[in-house]
Amino acid sequence: MIFNRGRKDNGAQARSQATHALPSNVLNGDARTLDEPHPPLTAAQAIRQVSPDSFTFTTTADLEPISGLVGQERALRAIQFGADIKSHDFNLFVVGPRAAGKRTAVTAYLEKKAIQADTPPDWIYVNNFDNPNRPCALKLPTGRARAFERAMVEAIDELRVTLPTLFEGDDYQARRRQIEEEFRSGQEDAFEALNKKAAAQNIGILRTPTGFAMAPMHEGKVVKPEIFAGLPEATRAQVEDKIAALQSELETILQGMPKSDKERRTRLTKLNEETAAIAISEALSSVRDGFGDVEAIGTHLSAVAKDLTQNIALFVGDEEENREVVSQPANTARNPKYRRYMVNVMVANGADNAVGAPIVSEVNPTYANLIGRIEHLAQMGTLVTDFLLVKPGALHEANGGFLLLDARKLLLSPFAWEALKRTLRGREIRIEQPAETQGFAQTQTLDPQPIPLNVKVVLFGDPQLYFMLSAQDPDFQGLFKVQADFDGSITRSADNNQAYARLIAGIVERHELRDVDAGGVARLIDESARLARDAERLSVEIGRIADILREADYWAGDAGRDVIGADDIERAVLEHTQRADRVRDRSHETIERGIVMVDVDGEKVGQINGLSVLQLGDFAFGKPTRISARVRMGPGRVTDIEREVDLGGPLHSKGVMILWGFLAGRFAQDVPLALSASLVFEQSYGGVDGDSASSTELYALLSALAEVPIRQGLAVTGSVNQWGEVQAIGGVNEKIEGFFDICEARGLTGEQGVLIPQANVQHLMLRKRVREAIEAGRFAIHAVETIDQGIEILTGKVAGEREPDGAYPADTINGRVEAKLRAFAHRAATFARPGANEGANAGAGAAATDDPAIPSATPAERLA
């Protein structure tokens, strides 16, 4: 700071003169006692209760139950808009606190809308006879998929019986024998003619294991080789010529046999097809009649008929198997050869007379559960698959309706988030293995035809997750354009109290609990306000409210009551707290036993009780902590010991800097702040964060500077700004109750209480014991707006206001603080004069002032 001579105003001069006119022992005198103490809050201000008489019902049985969107008009409008708009990229992200009943409320609304919507069509996969690795996706009218599946099984069952019978019939066998006889007789006639011709030339045609052989004959017997070799050469040559000619004719006959056999098979195949065509047409006719209005089914049945005609051997190859009775259907597990004709139903809407658009809530949104999967079977040491092993996912089931997903679970599932975005962008469900999307090959894979997608996706998550996705994922805002923001609480009013009673009736009905009387409803509304941490609002954490009701139902039953009353609600709350308060009890025990030092009576300078909140899961409790301050002359610095040892968080450090700004702004307008102070949370061994103790630390610092003791029976919470205004903080109920428990354990004296910011009065919803102690005058809560109000309550002394001459009265807190700071500045300037002790000068720090009573610093010392 830079101070220049000759530039102070008259007010500063007056303040300087007034200050130095004080006796040197001004701080040794008593400060002026406060004439009119600040009144504490009344019990009615400490807790706002609902009177059971304000209700017109006796029990919740008299109310019409509701569930969900109580006081959530903003979220309701967003849900209505997101559900009604047809654009595929206007999906919803429902934001709200945990257990706020978001899913229940959204589902309740969507059910009303879905029942009025058209029921979407069915989808099936069938075999692609031209390309088995790419199954065909067929769309069927609503409710027809299962019927088509049964019809195909019945058709195959019929063919398994009729085809073997048909091929065993006399007509087929006669026609078959005719063809066989025709080709067999032709071959035999050719061999017979060749045999006769060879016999006329004394040549025999012999059958051997390796084929046909020819040899000369004499008197019906084959001529032995040695005899044939003894014949004249001319005779042998003549015989060999005859054999060669006959062999040529034999070869011609033999060469014609495969062609003849092929022609025979062709005619037999044609016979088989002609014979089977009638049975196949008859078996499929009922399917065609039932689904003739579906063009895709007709095309598929034509392909089925063609394949059946070409694969009749599947039905006539095993005589015993194909004589099974019709009561044993074509089980694809027992008869894999029939799988190609079966139907894989992916989506069957309209089942059980269900109408409207589907609402699917997938609790485990893995990649396979979301997109679908292709299963494999192990055969002969390898994995194989077919179209019947294509399994649907949640998107298939929700197609044409709504899909509800938990955003956090979705993001934690590998590949699922990217797959969902890819599907929504492409507007089609393409089933791929995750490894395929990464470019890795599979043992055997399928590429099913994609199914068109028309779905509205609703994600549920907390605000932090929504903002993270908005900032980090460029695709998110393009696909989820509707934010439905659920408030964690609603305004407390007579109308909302009535609506809340109906909400309680809805919980009772849903969980089949005992009815709740008016007193129980009133007590539960009070507890709801406490959960909201605001006397003016009601919590809509439906899950927690339902838990309280279910516990109260148990205690009502344990007491033999038919109706849940206020006592049952109270016990449910207390029992829930007692199950979670072991750590709180141990913490308070250390204070009661004197292990952790906290005073609740007497007075001390520079020492005060601060209040903090510890959060353990869903249980929070207040804990008092001693805060102390020490001051001395120094270079103008407040040492936050918590920060110095890395136990203080940034918000706590901010609060300390703010209180330093308050001191400088109020007391160091014309003199340097030649102060060195240290602040610490005594016996604090964990981290400290938040600025709710900044006013507490300032009170301790003012007490140390003014040398005025603070009442130890009072604890303080509240943050402060640089103007000395006390600001609202969180956890006010837990903080008050935490100090009350300590005071009650040591004995309430009537002098104990808590200082809170005036802005926090509207948040007070204290426990019954605290309210009773306030009514009895044994405990007090003081609401303050400024530091001056607070220091007066804590010390019983007047804070003091600046007089017309610009100075604080010497016998006030502010006057004593200002005198101490000016004394520090004077001493610091003395040490800074040329020739003064260098070590002392270095230790105290250079300070400069233009006060004539304080020597000026050298030019080089004017920066502090």
Query: Could you tell me the mean pLDDT?
Result: 82
Bin the helical content: 40-55%
Low-confidence segments, given as residue ranges, are 1-25, 319-328, 836-864
Backbone shape: elongated
Largest sheet: 7 strands, mixed
**For the CA atoms, what is the radius of gyration?**
49 Å
Q: Based on helices, strands and strand pairing, what is the structural class?
A: alpha/beta
Number of extended strands: 30
Number of helices: 30
Span of the ends, CA to CA: 5 Å
Bin the strand percentage: 15-25%
The neighbouring-strand order within the major sheet is: 23-24-22-21-26-29-30
How is this fold's topology laid out?
Elements: H1 10-20, H2 43-46, H3 73-84, E1 92-95, H4 102-114, E2 122-126, E3 136-140, H5 145-167, H6 170-200, E4 203-208, E5 211-218, E6 221-222, H7 225-229, H8 233-290, H9 295-310, H10 313-316, E7 343-347, E8 359-362, H11 367-371, E9 373-374, E10 377-379, E11 382-384, E12 390-391, H12 394-398, E13 402-406, H13 407-412, H14 416-426, E14 428-429, H15 434-437, E15 451-452, E16 456-461, H16 463-472, H17 476-479, E17 482-485, E18 489-491, H18 494-511, H19 518-531, E19 537-539, H20 542-558, H21 566-580, H22 582-592, E20 603-604, E21 607-616, E22 619-633, E23 637-640, H23 641-644, H24 650-667, E24 675-681, H25 694-706, E25 710-711, E26 714-716, E27 719-720, E28 726-727, H26 732-746, E29 753-757, H27 768-775, E30 780-784, H28 787-795, H29 813-832, H30 838-844
Parallel strand pairs: 1-16, 1-17, 8-13, 13-16, 21-26, 23-24, 26-29, 29-30
Antiparallel strand pairs: 2-3, 2-7, 4-5, 5-6, 9-12, 10-11, 14-15, 18-19, 20-25, 21-22, 22-24, 27-28
